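Morning!

As promised:
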Amino acid sequence: MARVRTQRGIAVLAGAAMALTGCGTTQSSTDDAAENYPTQAVQYIIPFDPGGESDITARLQQQALEDAMGQSVSVSNRPGGGGAVGWSELATSIKPDGHTLMGANLPHIVLQPLARDDAGYETEQIKWAYIFESTPNALVVSKNSPYETVEDFVKAAEEKKLTVGGSASFSANHIGTLAFNKAADIDLTYVPFSGTGAATPALLGGQVDALMTYNTEALNLKEQGAKVLAVASEEPLPELPEAPTFKDSGYDVVQGAWRGVAVPPETPDAIVQQVADAFKAVNEDPEVKQKMEELGFHIEDMGPEEATQFTEEQTAEAEDLLERFGLLKD
Amino acid sequence: MFVDITQAMGQVVTPMMLLLIIVGVIAGMAVGATPGLSATVGLALLLPITFAMDPTTGLVLMGAFYMGAIYGGSFTAILVNTPGTPSSIATTFDGYPMTQQGRSEAAIIASTVGSVVGGVIGVIGLLVLAPLLAQVVLAFGPQEYFWMGIFGLTMIAGIAPSLVKGLAAGFLGLLISTIGISPVGGEVRFTFGFTQMQGGIPLIVALIGLFTIPTIVDMVIAPGSRTAAMAADAQARQRGGELKSTLRDLLSRPLNPIRSSIIGTFVGILPGAGGSVANLIAYNEAKRTSKRSKNFGKGEIDGVVAPEAANNAVVGGGMVPLLTLGIPGAPPDAVIYGVLLLHGLRPGPDLFEEQGVLTFTFILAVGVSAILMAPVGLVAGRGLQRAVVRTPTHYLAPLIALLTIVGSYAVRNSALDVLMMVALGLIGYGLRNVGLPPAAIVLGVVLGPIIETGLAQGLLTATAQANPWTSFFTRPISLVLIVLVILGLAWPLITDLREKRKAGKVKAP
């Protein structure tokens, strides 16, 4: 009895709210759902292993996200296929009511459908709610490497075969190396490792000539004496002030990873906007902000439209690069 | 540094901290003993809880949990032939036969001794040799990982009754390991149209299927087969003194746990190998060097000590590259790395200098948790053992069946994994009955990715050479490993020859 009464109370309140905002008469049922969203606990799935950059970020956000959404948020992992296992589920079998969110990464969601015969999803099916951080690529050589600048490195690469290690195939590091190859007209051999951390000993142990890695790992390596030759961002990075951008050296390479959150394709726009608002609030949380900056993550604020447009730009660039190097699927 | 260590010691030996360690060890043991919930998964579940704690408390809890989880994995390996974590694969080889003979209590005691010794030696290695050992990581390139994997494969000669069938099983395991996205190059392989198969078949799913399903089928087919074991166990219990006599027996051969611990520490240091490889190598070396080599696989107690010492030594060893270079040595270390980062602690030389007290408190606490496993494990482990042995088969078999389903689902929250587990289990049962050992299949699954990655990366890193293949035969550490491979292959032949000669001498007048 008591429950019925409270429910009716909520309905009356909601009706009053609609009347007040002046759009009560044109509301459809999906907008009603958006009005009350979220009505239950929210699942925030990371399609990667625990302990990685995406996982750490999600766990950093969890508390602030609960505050912003007014519901409990549980973070879980569904790793496999470099994220593709999770994203194919997002595209096809997750209920589009906004109560299940999934971390999504650029350029992964662009490159996998381009390179694999059946990645299980199309880039357009990953519906962005928000892009909240980025980690630009950086080119790093070891302490006793003969190269001091990008120009040295390019000159050497013109004369002999040089190897560049990075995390995974068809990843930010991979496409960053391809973009560098194109811009400098050189032929670096890219060696994929199973993760950012796994590539590092290969540089320190001299197995590869350089690493195309993220700014976060570049910072780690620099503390151990390695040299950061260039960063692949538009502007120099505050945490690596001495490193020039590739652009400064005359090579048009702006590449890295962008992380955000996505929802199933049929999710109503009104709900997507609410998710976006929640993540915007999370990005403004002082504690989250401070921790992210400490870790070297760059805070980004791209809402649904901006993120989608950015993805389209990335897709065009990636298609061109993969085609040039014969890596596009048949 | 010594000031830091003394201060750290003072922090660890407080009632609150010791209580925290015991809680961590017990929780870890419970998770480790649950098939499907590996140390890595357990640590990830623990992660949100540690946020609310200060960095020291959170790290100590995680360290104790990790140590306990690796130890707990041996319980189910011994009692129901199901490695609780991939670090206890080899523990099943002799642990389960011991259970079938009614000697499971002795096996649990052996696992406890091995785990404590291994845990402590691993931490000593971390404490004393960390900067030195970190160099080992850097000397190991793709070529060396390739040869290490091949060396691991030579183990097939030892665990299979027939070499041809052993190789066939190992080859099947290698094939299973190629399902999904290729580790180098990113090609999609053998997904048979299921996009979910891009993630491959997780090792834990293969383990549960190949080891546990045949065990359940055996139990169901012959429910009376456990009666003899139950009687033997009850007899031993009546006789009493199992703990004393087992300890005395094990302590008379201290070399085995020490050697296994050193192997574990070393393998732990190498990123990309970890407990799943260490326990297999240690088992094989124990078998190779033992005077009772022939008993291995038939319930040899040293065959339980070796893998359990090695896998707990991986805990300390894996933290060497983690704390000195910021490279997680074994998969669970990746989660601990995340905790360090979240608390703003950047692993590397600075961690020891600027955060010395915290770092040493963490290291010492991991060592203390290894020691505390002894009392906790002897009570909880033997309690579980008693319960499992006394449970009638018509309850035990369905209970294990339920565990296999929950366990394989929990790996990635995927129903497809449950189906794959059942399918692999039925295949494994059929193949075992024609003489293809599941252990050899698992060996292929564990080592396949290491070998493939090493080969492909080795060829790529050596592109500057005229013939990249030569790089596999010219590097010094590779050459050492090649010699080990040859020895590994020749060893069964040598022992055969020796025995024939011995037999010949006896016969000849």
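The beta strands of chain B are 180-181, 188-189.

Hope this helps with the figure draft.
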